[in-house]
Amino acid sequence: MHIEKINPQIFTNEYDIMCQRLFPHSNKLYDSPFGAMWGIIEPGEISKIHGHHEAETFIIFKGEGIVKVGKKEEPVTQGDAIFIPPFEEHSLKNTSDENLIFFTIWWENTFSKKNSKKLNSGKKKYLITATPPTPNGDLHVGHLSGPYTGADILTRYLKLKGNEVFYMSGADDHQSYVPFKAGQLEKSPRETADHFANEIEKTLRLAKINPDIFVKPHFSTFHIEFVKEFFEKLWNEGKLVEKEVDILFCKQCDKHLYEAYVRGNCPHCNELSDGNACEKCGRPNLCIDLLNPTCKCCGSEPEKSKIKQLFFPLSNYKTQLKQYYKELKIGPHLTALCERMLDEDLPDIPISHISDWGIPVPVEGYENQTIYVWFEMAPGYLSATNELIQDKNLSYTLRDFWNNQDTTIINFFGYDNGYFHSVLFPAIWLAYSEDITLPKTMITNEFYQLEGLKFSTSRGHAVWGKELLENASHDVVRYYLSYSRPETVETNFTMEEFNHIVDTNLNQEWESWLHDLKCRLEAEFPNGAPELETLSGNYLMFYQHVNRIMNEIMNAYEPNTFSPQKVVRLLNELVRIVKKFSAGEEFLTVLKNNQQRRNTAIALELYTAKILALFSSPIMPTFGKMLWGDLGFNIEMQLDEEVNFLPAGQKVNLQKNYFSKTNDSFYLQNI
């Protein structure tokens, strides 16, 4: 227990009246979620008109007067309690011949902002997937710009809001591009897959991309057996069909051609395409229907050969897919692909190929064929979930994720993989279980070019993720990849623009403001963050502007409107307006009796810095965490119901430098 004596001898002059503050306690004996004081207004005097972001209540102990709140005036007397909403300018005047004695208490609430959204609307469960990369090479910057940074950014944001979020990816071992690459390297497919899967994981770690599970099929406890059982279930239920069909065969190489081994013109758009799917228009092909096909191993024209092959009949799921697309949240490019395919006859998709690389088909008579890798991936997501549950020792079952409408599943992938994720996989999952939980949102990206041309490992036209991340911090790399992310159209990476954007925005804008704020805090507020005194006029307008930007940032982070590109631009705008605000306030420092306004101005800048720390952290995790700690917070960063001002007196210790320059030699050799 602590008893505080009300003592007029220690009154201070605040708001043009004599007051004694009671809470928060001056000696920091304890914290309180509110502020309180009592005051005396002498006859004929009036408190200074002001407004602030807290709600407040006056209680009149003695005397009578007039309270003004906004444009309204009301008489008040002993025993009256007056509620004052946030931001309303107010004053209290003594109209009697004796002292007016009153008590006031104020607190931060949900701000009563009309139409404001809650920052944290309740804990939810999310399962986020990024399409497994093919381990036929390391990740270049083009790969990083798409699903992997995107999924990591969204995961971090949703966790920041207090949700339960799991991020899954893995290596796509059984792609035909793995043995094709192995042949070029004169290594075994197994050796090639394992080597590049390890390199991919290293690159992801350098980029601070941290999936909760990264599945390597060859080493998985579940993957191969689960895929076989899944395949057998569909076969036994008559959901797969057998056909005798023509396929392409290279006599010179003695090889049946599909996917990585054949090249021709797409039967749908006439662009050059590999077998099974066109990365330009996104539509599937049967390989045999490619125009002007050639063997990619020797360049010769293949022959036709008849074999028995297993197919998955997409057309059986047309009605269910049509209904699913009414609720699925996807972008315009993928919408066009889905609707165009539904408008035509959905094809039967070959799901087995003659090959010695991959999971053997578990059906008698198909011992020399393996399961088509894009069919394998559909059950692969389910088996990866089982592995996640085991690896993280979760109390969930597979059904808790994939047969539970309370789980939100979100897929990240490039548009060139769009048909597989939006048409083939949902149909396969529906064939497996009619009550399966399908993804609610699919987030795609377009191609990311390098110096105006497509990334090409064969031509050496690439900036490798590992090289860039070893010469520039992961924060600035993630910042620039978000800034230039190919969300709806193809975008371009250049080393020159990378350095220009990082230097202009981060070094000249963000860094300079934070350093300037550091200097002002050290000179004017060595005892910690100032107390917010008043919030009206230009200060209120600035505060509301900052909050509008914050709401736009939150909207750009949400799954259905996800746009890291927009987030970065809004963060830049946040820094721009606070620099402008700060520069304007400097003119007022020459005035006498300006401390109240100065306190408010610096409190607003610290509030903006807090928002910058919170909302930059999903994109720039190390910077966000560092700034959060430098602002004096020793608790884990999390979005609560609202973002509040820094507590008065909280120690702030900003850094001199937050961003380092890109290695000059790396820049010069890549420009």
Main attributes of the structure:
Isoleucyl-tRNA Synthetase, Domain 1, alpha+beta, ATP binding, 26 strands, 671 residues, Rossmann fold, 17 helices
Question: Can you walk through the features of this model?
Answer:
The chain has three domains: 8-107, Sandwich (Jelly Rolls); 170-188 and 216-448, HUPs (Rossmann fold, 3-Layer(aba) Sandwich), CATH 3.40.50.620; 493-630, Isoleucyl-tRNA Synthetase, Domain 1 (Orthogonal Bundle). Helix content is 37%, strand content 20%. It is built from 17 helices and 26 strands. It has a six-stranded antiparallel β-sheet with strand order 1-2-3-9-4-7, with no helix packed on it. α1 links the parallel β10 (125-130) and β11 (164-170). α11 (474-483) crosses α12 and α15 (595-616) packs antiparallel against α16 (621-630). The relative contact order is 0.10. The model is unreliable at 110-118 (pLDDT under 50).
Q: Work out the number of β strands.
A: 26
Provide the gyration radius in Å. 32 Å
What number of structural domains do the residues give? 3
Write the CATH architecture name of the largest domain.
3-Layer(aba) Sandwich
Report mean pLDDT, rounded to a whole number: 93
Kindly estimate the percentage of residues that lie in beta strands according to DSSP. 15-25%
End-to-end Cα distance:
68 Å
What is the CATH third-level topology name of the largest domain?
Rossmann fold
Largest sheet: 6 strands, antiparallel
Shape: elongated
The CATH homology group name of the largest domain = HUPs
**CATH class wording of the largest domain:** Alpha Beta
Helix content: 25-40%
Strand order of the largest sheet: 1-2-3-9-4-7
Supply the helix-strand structural class. Answer: alpha+beta
Number of helices: 17
Low-pLDDT sequence parts: 110-118
